[in-house]
Specification:
Layout lengths: L5 H11 L1 H9 L12 H34 L3 H37 L3 H35 L5 H14 L3 H16 L4 H23 L9 H24 L15 H33 L5 H37 L3 H28 L1 H8 L3 H15 L2 H16 L4 H25 L3 H26 L8
Helix pairs in contact: 3-8, 3-11, 3-12, 4-5, 4-6, 4-7, 4-10, 4-11, 5-6, 5-7, 6-9, 7-9, 8-9, 10-16, 11-12, 11-14, 11-15, 12-14, 12-15, 13-14, 14-17, 15-17, 16-17
């Protein structure tokens, strides 16, 4: 009888390891067997993993809403400061997607393949990379904030307030990046409930500190806008600490929750997957700046600029379920490919898309029917209400296509194919939305009505292109 090769001996050792049973227990039921899987089982797995993710995202929306409500009591400068500084912080968050997306894709693939040694190594390296990138971004933030915000053309008092908020908030960037790694590891293992619990407590801490430090409640000093930034920073550190101790207790990954020297081979591996996802976020941000510039040139002018955040805030009620299903698709597709079940991966992706489409289509109907009441929640300006309602009614048609684009983007990322959704974002937002918005809104004179249709058309195109490319199946061959 021939001697086993080193590769087969390693495989046999892994199969005999108790880690295999632990890894199998982390998989959804449909992946714990090699037998044929019913669509009902697929639907059940998708629902179970998606609902905690959806709830987590809704909590984030609630947190942001309450935060703006408190800051709004401090006056126009404070609101402007949070808005402008928030854009800078969102740019840094987009960079952190490198760590989050790369970690989720790698760990999901390793868990699916029952290769827990590499899963643990990926977590340790992601923590090291997150800490390094967070430190660099924090330093750059302190160096570049003053000249960057100076280009915004704000009044001196608003600029000073913006810098105050931003400099304090930068102290939470390192825990934000490392927390991304820890949360991504949990999602890669299919654990969406722990991030939900963490987000719940982070929200509580943030809102309590927000109220106490802004207005000086009880023993807390009245810090105003600085108190809002301090509450944000402390909540980031609190979230990181909760993630750290939650993972330390994990029976499989607990020993991996520690920092180690960053190895360039692993850094490149994470970057190769995560960098396009970060670029995708940056493309969205930059294209929206161009789109906003077009809106400001329409006959509706200021009313158009006021209507955009109103429409997007209302529409975020539908964004959040789509984002939750996208996160679920990332995990399920990655684990399925790791388990050598590309057929199941595809079925998970389409089922997650179908469930998200159903929810977001219903929300589209709600937006269309209740467009005017939604708009009046935010303003009583008749022109802004009219333009905002027009936004909601036009974009209601695109909600099913938005579900396609969002969820299948998550499925691509779970496969490690982050370049495809980034390419789709570039084509639909830069090459389609901006030129079409300029043509319809300004050249042909349709104003915001034309701009809203350009937005809806680009979303529809993104959904259809995503579905076509996903159906082709090239993502099944991606190596991570």
């Amino acid at each position: 009888m021939p001697e086993p090769t080193s590769n087969s001996a390693e495989a046999l050792h892994r199969l005999a390891s108790p880690d295999v049973e632990l890894a199998r227990a982390m998989l959804p039921p449909a992946l714990r067997t090699q037998e044929a899987v019913s669509w009902r089982a697929i639907a059940h797995d998708v629902w179970n993993i998606s609902i905690p993710a959806v709830t987590t995202n809704l909590l984030q929306t609630t947190n942001a809403f309450l935060d703006r409500m408190f800051v709004g009591r401090l006056g126009r400068d404070a609101l402007a400061a949070v808005g402008v500084a928030g854009q800078g912080l969102f740019l840094l968050m987009a960079v952190s997607f490198i760590v989050g997306t790369g970690t989720t894709a790698l760990i999901a693939r390793f868990v699916g393949g029952q290769n827990l040694d590499d899963a643990r190594k990926a977590l340790r390296q992601s923590l090291a990379l997150g800490a390094a990138m967070g430190t660099v971004c924090m330093a750059l933030g302190y160096l570049l904030a003053k000249p960057a915000f100076g280009l915004m053309g704000m009044e001196p008092s608003a600029e000073r307030a913006t810098l105050t908020f931003f400099f304090i908030a930068l102290l939470g960037i390192v825990p934000l990046f490392t927390g991304q790694a820890l949360g991504a590891a949990l999602r890669g293992m299919g654990d969406m409930r722990t991030p939900l619990k963490v987000m719940l407590w982070v929200n509580v801490v943030h809102i309590v500190l927000d109220f106490a430090l802004i207005f000086g409640v009880g023993p807390f000093p009245r810090m105003g806008l600085a108190g809002a930034a301090t509450a944000l920073t402390l909540s980031q550190w609190f979230g990181f600490t909760m993630f750290w101790f939650a993972l330390r207790k994990h029976p499989v990954m607990g020993e991996a929750v520690r920092f180690q020297r960053l190895e360039m081979v692993w850094a490149k591996r994470i970057f190769r997957i995560g960098a396009p996802a970060s670029l995708q976020a940056l493309l969205r941000i930059s294209s929206m700046l161009g789109y906003t510039r077009i809106l400001s040139a329409t006959p509706q002018g200021t009313a158009a600029l006021a209507a955009l955040p109103i429409g997007m805030t209302a529409e975020s009620i539908a964004f959040m379920p789509g984002l939750g299903y996208s996160m679920a698709a990332t995990t399920l597709v990655g684990q399925s490919l790791g388990a050598k079940r590309p057929d199941v991966a595809a079925r998970y992706a389409w089922m997650a898309t179908a469930q998200a489409c159903l929810i977001m289509t219903i929300m589209g109907v709600v937006f269309y029917v209740f467009a005017y009441p939604f708009a009046r929640w935010f303003t009583h300006d008749s022109l802004v209400v009219e333009v905002s309602a027009d936004y909601l009614r036009i974009n209601a048609y695109s909600e099913p296509f938005l579900a396609l684009a969002m969820v299948l983007s998550g499925a691509f990322q779970g496969a490690g194919d982050t370049r495809t959704p980034t390419g789709i974002t570039f084509v639909t937002m830069w090459l389609l939305r901006l030129p079409l918005a300029y043509l319809l809104a300004l050249t042909l004179g349709y104003g915001t009505h034309g701009a809203w249709w350009a937005m809806a058309a680009s979303v529809m195109a993104a959904g259809l292109i995503s579905a076509l490319l996903f159906q082709r199946g090239g993502w099944k061959q991606v190596k991570v």
